[in-house]
């Protein structure tokens, strides 16, 4: 009886240790996301397999001021922390909030300081590239016609410096 009790306690202690280790394990996507600072590369219109810079489209449409505002993403810095928080800095203005993966890490939900949520589809996440796709209707906007193209999906591209 004593031997059976020892075996049972030993088995429970091993399974308890195993569960604790699994909780601390970080997925590869989380590790990539939280492993340092990201810099903005650009915002792109996605049409099938093709993409084009939104800033370039705006320049071609004669909207230089708006193109310059969107191109400022190249000066933005983003940090995602393991505790589910993030900071973003652009034009000397810092913002913070929370992030979480959903749908088997295929989507990321960003909650800003005002508790507004935006859901991005993770198109690419490697050690050096993070591409987040957003349907502009998620921002409460209608698709836009620009240079003969209907814009309803944007891709935010971030890179490691």
TrEMBL record:
InterPro entries: Lipocalin-like (IPR024311)
Residues annotated as domain Lipocalin-like: 74-132
Top-rank taxon: Bacteria
Protein's name in the database: Lipocalin-like domain-containing protein
């Amino acid at each position: 009886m004593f031997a059976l009790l020892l075996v049972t306690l030993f088995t429970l202690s091993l399974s308890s240790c195993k569960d604790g280790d699994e909780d601390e394990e970080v997925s590869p996507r989380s590790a990539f996301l939280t492993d340092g600072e990201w810099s903005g590369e650009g915002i792109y219109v996605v049409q099938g397999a093709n993409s084009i810079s939104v800033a370039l489209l705006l320049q071609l449409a004669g909207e230089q001021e708006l193109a310059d505002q969107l191109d400022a993403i190249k000066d933005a810095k983003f940090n995602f922390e393991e505790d589910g928080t993030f900071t973003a800095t652009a034009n000397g203005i810092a913002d913070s909030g929370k992030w979480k993966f959903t749908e088997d890490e295929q989507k990321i939900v960003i909650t800003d300081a005002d508790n507004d949520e935006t859901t991005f589809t993770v198109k690419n996440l490697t050690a050096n590239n993070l591409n987040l796709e957003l349907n502009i209707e998620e921002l409460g906007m209608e698709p836009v016609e620009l240079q003969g193209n209907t814009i309803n999906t944007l891709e935010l591209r971030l890179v490691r410096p």
